[in-house]
Design goal:
single chain, about 260 residues, alpha/beta, Purple Acid Phosphatase, chain A, domain 2, nine-stranded mixed β-sheet, six-stranded mixed β-sheet, 6 helices, 15 strands, about 30% strand
Length: about 260
């Protein structure tokens, strides 16, 4: 089973770059199932139903979220009916929806779980370790299991991955919007990367206008970040190849597609 996991989609620029390249990526890498993190897809924070449907129609099979999952009030209306949406499993104040979902491709179960980290994060959550441990106790071992760990600290993500190495097929970090180069297969067969990266404007700061981020960083100005509207776009993702029998990962490699620039994979 080949799975394409697309990093945080940031605003219109992110949605558009994904739509321009998703068919090409599915064909080139013989993808069976597509997951994307969409918590920033609507104006940089949150996901309205219109954009959820836009991304599903583009070819994404399921969308995970993160700490901004409830930033747009529209989600209260549609989250319980959105069959391809996965919100953080361990967040305490939920608006409904599901933190883990089971899909099926060619008779093989693919479970997708979304977790929030605790380090440098403001949200009130159950500890992700206990949330996943409890979920695994209730889940079948005979299914591919992809975990989106949405967190700030690389050390927390890596320690978490080693803790559950061999118990899930992949633990993929999201949230920082910067792709890391530590992709690997852990000793017991779990694919790992600290952060998949983002899809969005390349010349800003994590998809937003650099001037506003600089002003907040240097001068403490609390202006709302505006999305960068530059014409150069980035698509970050990983491909995971998973054995259909053992449900363990055989390979993971990154995609770093910079329009009008270099493309690494």
């Amino acid at each position: 089973m080949r799975i394409l996991f697309i990093g945080d989609i940031v605003g219109r620029n992110g949605r558009q770059v994904v739509k321009r390249h998703i068919d090409e990526l599915i064909g080139k890498y013989r993808i069976d199932f597509v997951i994307a993190n969409g918590e920033n897809a609507t104006h940089g924070k949150g996901l309205i139903e219109k954009h959820y449907l836009e991304l599903i129609d583009a070819g994404i099979d399921t969308i995970t979220l993160g700490n901004h999952y409830a930033r747009k009030s529209d989600i209260r209306r549609y989250i319980n009916e959105a069959e391809c949406l996965v919100r953080p499993l361990n967040i305490l104040s939920t608006l409904g929806g599901f933190g883990s979902r089971l899909f099926e491709v060619d008779g093989i179960g693919i479970r997708v779980t979304n977790l929030l980290g605790t380090a440098f994060m403001k949200e009130e959550v159950n500890h992700p370790y206990y949330a996943l441990k409890d979920l695994l106790a209730e889940s079948s071992e005979d299914e591919i299991h992809i975990v989106d760990f949405h967190g700030e600290a690389t050390a927390e993500k890596m320690a978490f991955a080693y803790t559950f190495d061999g118990q899930v097929s992949a633990i993929l970090g999201t949230h920082t919007h910067v792709q890391t180069r530590d992709y690997r297969i852990l000793p017991n067969g779990t694919a790992y990367i600290s952060d998949v990266g983002m899809c969005g404007a390349y010349n800003g700061v994590i998809g937003f206008k650099k001037e506003e981020v600089i002003n907040r960083t240097l001068f403490g100005q609390d202006d709302l970040f505006q999305l960068d509207d530059g014409d150069q776009s980035l698509l970050s993702a990983v491909v995971i190849d998973i054995d259909n029998q053992s449900k363990k990962a055989k390979e993971i490699f990154p995609i770093y597609l910079l329009e009008n620039g270099r493309s690494d994979d």
